[in-house]
Structures are given as structure tokens and as C-alpha cells.
Amino acid sequence: MGGYIGVEYYQTDIPYASDLEDIPEYNGQPYVIVNDNQPYFDESDFTTKLFETYSPLDALGRCGVAYANIGEDLMPTKERGSIGMIKPSGWQTVKYDFVDGKYLYNRCHLIGYQLSGENANERNLITGTRYMNTEGMLPFENEVANYVQDTGNHVLYRVTPIFDGNNLVADGVLMEAMSVEDRGLDIEFNVFVYNVQPNVKIDYLTGKSSVDKNV
């Protein structure tokens, strides 16, 4: 990659791919704001009816767009079960002492379990770094969960994993959300979260990794 994650790194079937061409390389922050933080939802998307959709895995076994209208009735009522049987594309089991929890990779839910109750769903789990999962995605998931629980309102929520070419590990995920009843007054974001781990060099084609000796 050069100074930017260029549009050529994104799937051509994403309608707004051209808007992502200026996403800079990771520079120490877990995410970057896209499109002035405004999601790409259409007016016709807004509804108080709950729904959730998960794209079929592609020919390489990779996840696609996960999209839901989050509400209290969609949220789980029981503790999360095991997901260890799921092996997302590019999955590797590797540890580094300097990584929180030691494991480099997590099975990252595109739509978090606390929002949808979807757990061992292979269409909703990607190979993501611990850093992306906890520092990048989780704060946004918590924001949406807290809002829904506090207000009883709904939030349109879409997460798109972005893969470069035939890579098995995503460069990151595009996270969009907007509160429905007030059209984004309380919840509105559109961010690209980097699938990186500080001090680790990742081969996104295979998922293999090594200590970044340039750090």
C-alpha cells in the first residue's frame, strides 16, 4: 500500500467504494471518519421494524455486509456461547506477549452479540485483531447498545468488511449507524476501523504474522 488505502483495495460491488479512496494508512488511531461521519443509508431504509441480514460467504469463504435495525427485542437474553468451532477466512491461532490477552486474532462479530444475539454465525464472524475488536469496534457497539437500552428506540447498523483482492483477512471494516426515531440526532457515525495490531506485521493474503521489526 502507498500513503492511502486506494479504491482499488475495495470490492467493486460496494456502491460507495469511490468515497473510500482517500482513507489514509493507519497512523496510530484505531479508526478514521468517513463521509463527514454521515452513513450511506437511504431514506427508504428507515423503519422501526426489526431486521437483520447477513451476506452469504463468497467463493473464498469471506463474509460480506451485515445489516440490521437494532432494537431491544433483537438483543440477547442469555449469555453468549462458544464460537471456537468457527474458523473465519484467514484464521490463525498465534500469540504475542505484548498483545492484550496474548492472542493476536479474535473471531470478530460484524454485528456484536450484545446487539443482535447472533453468536456462532459464520456469516457474522471475521478474523480481526484484538486491537480492532476492543479499541476500534467495541466502543461503537457499546454506544449503540447503551442508547437502545436507555431509550427503547432503534438504530440502523451496518458493518462492511473490506478485503483487498483475494486477501483472506480484511483491511478493516466500515461501520455505519444512525438512530431511527430522531434521524441521527443521538447516534450517527460512519467510520473505517483498521484491522491492525500495533507492533505486528500481518500478511493479509493468508493471515500469517510476525513481529514488526521496523517498530
Short description:
Helices cover 12% and strands 26% of the residues.
Q: Keywords, please?
A:
single chain; 215 residues; alpha+beta; Extracellular Endonuclease, Chain A; two-stranded antiparallel sheet; 2 helices; 12 strands; globular; disordered N terminus; Endonuclea_NS_2
Compile the SSE list and pairings.
Layout: E1 4-5, E2 23-24, E3 31-33, E4 51-54, E5 66-70, E6 105-109, H1 113-116, E7 125-129, H2 130-151, E8 155-162, E9 172-179, E10 188-194, E11 200-202, E12 209-211
Order of helices and strands: EEEEEEHEHEEEEE
Average of pLDDT: 91
Instruction: Name the overall outline.
Output: globular
Quote the CATH topology: Extracellular Endonuclease, Chain A
Distance between the termini: 18 Å
Identify low-pLDDT runs.
1-9
Largest sheet: 6 strands, antiparallel
Helicity range of the residues? 10-25%
The share of residues in extended strands comes to 25-35%
- Spatial strand order of the main sheet: 3-10-9-8-5-4
**By CATH's scheme, which homologous superfamily applies?**
Extracellular Endonuclease, subunit A
Structural class: alpha+beta
Give me the number of helical elements.
Answer: 2
For the record, the count of structural domains works out to 1
CATH architecture: 3-Layer(aba) Sandwich
| CATH class annotation | Alpha Beta
Number of strands: 12
* Radius of gyration of CA atoms, rounded to a whole number: 17 Å
